[in-house]
Amino acid sequence: MDPIGNNVATQVGDLARPKQTAQDQHLQADAAREQHLDAPPSPVAAEDVASAVAQMQQVVEAASGRNLHFQVFEGTEDVFVEIRDAHTEEVIKQIPAQDVLEMRARISEVVGLLFDNQA
After folding, report:
1. Predicted confidence band of residue 13 (pLDDT cuts 50, 70, 90)
2. What is the layout of strands, in order, in the sheet containing 66-72?
3. Nearby residues of 94 by Cβ (< 8 Å), 6 or more positions away
4. Which structural domain, as residue segments, surrounds residue 106?
5. Contact of 67 with 83, CB cutoff 8 Å
6. How far apart are CA 31 and CA 15, in angstroms?
7. Is residue 8 part of a domain?
8. Which residue of 2, 15, 18, 101 could cross-link 73, Cys pair, CB 3.0 to 4.6 Å?
9. 90 lies in a domain?
10. Residue 57 in contact with residue 71, Cβ under 8 Å?
């Protein structure tokens, strides 16, 4: 078939094929999400996490002159990141903020007390 014939055949095929509605697209996306949520999370090796963190630290330091310090909050064992100036070691930002970490610890404590009193 010549190039013009191929082009016409493609256009006819596009017209003949029913268009997918937005609702169909949402249904397909929801089904894909449900399949993904049903699958158990795959474990990640500690070495892989450490390697990824080291790479992020190098990239951030090279690009911005700032250091990333990953730490664990003792109250909830949540991981938080401190962004520090590379020269002065001054904390520029903490993610999540200290207030948020402390609030999560208090909420966990209250929830624990509620369940202990109900048992």
Report:
1. very low
2. 66-72, 79-85, 91-95
3. 80, 81, 82, 83
4. 48-118
5. yes
6. 27
7. no
8. 101
9. yes
10. no
On whether residue 76 sits in a domain, the answer given is yes
Q: Which of 37, 87, 39, 41 is nearest to 66 (CA)?
A: 87
Look at residue 29 and give its three-state secondary structure.
helix
Per-residue pLDDT for 20 more than 60?
no
Q: Residue 50 in contact with residue 79, Cβ under 8 Å? A: no
**Number of separate domains in the chain:** 1
- Over residues 44-69, the mean pLDDT reads 85
Percentage of the chain surpassing pLDDT 70? 67
Q: What is the DSSP string of 38-69?
A: HSPPPP--HHHHHHHHHHHHHHHHHHHSEEEE
Residue 113 carries which side chain, given as an amino acid letter?
L
Q: Which of 53, 102, 107 is nearest to 74 (CA)?
A: 102
**pLDDT at residue 21, as a whole number:** 64
Distance CA 98, CA 80 (A): 9
H-run or E-run covering 95: strand 91-95
